[in-house]
Amino acid sequence: MKNGNEYARHLKIYLLVLLLVLLLSPDKCFSQIIIDPGHGGYDPGAAYNEIQEKNINLSIAKQVFEYLKNQGFETTLTRDTDIYLSLSNRLTLVEQGRTIAFISIHCNSFTDPRVRGVEVYYQSANPNSYQLAKSIFDNFACYTNLPLRKIEAKNYFVLSENQSTAVLVECGFLSNTYDREYLLSQDGREKIVRAISEGIINYFSKVYPNGLDKMPAASLLNLPSYSSSTTNTTRISLQWVCTTETTSFAFDLEYRPNYSSTFVRLLSSTTQTAYTFSGSQGLTYYFRVRAKDKAGNISPWSTVKSTSIPYDDTNSLFTLSSGWKKASGPYRFLGSSSYTTLKGKYFKLKQGLKLYSVKEVAIIVTKSPYGGKANVYLNGKLIKTIDTYASKNTYRVPLIIKTYTTPTTIYDLRVVTTGTKNTYSKGYFVDIDGVGVKR
Fold it and tell me: For residues 73 and 67, what is the distance between their CA atoms, to the nearest angstrom?
């Protein structure tokens, strides 16, 4: 195995090239099908003596890729060499492109060597996922003599966190003599490749009878990082468009809050291109849309977009020292904000309370010609000094305090006025309208 530094360097190069392909060639990154060879690199998967699952997965995946490519499908491999990819990295292409189907290829193993056969897993909340799994499962019966063990819904990461229709195929048991010999033989692998490939082709013929070249596509228009940037309420205005030329289309719109991995349908087969969503303070909401036309074509889900609704300054999570006053008006979040011109006055999270799974913290302020400065502390440390000066009044401005690479628990959040200002300001006002949290 390569040493850690060299391995990390190769992985970074691989991911950078992948990202550049996505960013610089947006039309090329539409892969109708993504084939994912499970495991790789220092993760061998299941093993039997010197036989490693990762190598068999890659061999089968490459052949499926070629089979589908020869049939005219735009297909991509998550890896085409022996390299380790995290589960989230495997979904990068799905998130950046407009993938319709994702097939993860694996081999199985069990403590009882008598156990053998094919297993196919699908997404419980996606009817199309079951149809794809069933099509592949049935084609194993047509093209191989491997026993069919089960087809079942599972909550595997590459299924549950996947925006496209996804399945995971276990092609047999390395721990079983008969399955192992079949997986290692050229004839056996060719039959497995044909079973998976024809299963995918049959699925597309059934679900997209009018062909993929006529498929519509939909896109959500941009959302602000914090909803308060465009509204003084907890409502979120959504807009979307069909991005392909078609005269007849309808849309499905779905969302999920940050605490759930399951999308919920908001609108089905609607001709609307706008919707107002009512949310709650302190939550991040994720949205996606897809288009349908009268010919029966259904697009993949759009790239997911998100926005966070801030906590209002009057939320019961927070407390203020004496010396703060209330400002009210239609430009302030939920109609009011808290301001002071005095030094050493705090606005803080109440002792004993916590904010969980935080990816970013922002203080929502009013900036004005009289704006002053304040220090912001997170978990006992001074993180940033904010300046609320602006040449004219600007309301509900999110000042980003800190972004976290991994979700973090905040047990201490304090804004403390410094009684200072920049040379342009006419005063020492610090006007707090809320706290933004990305989750």
Answer: 9
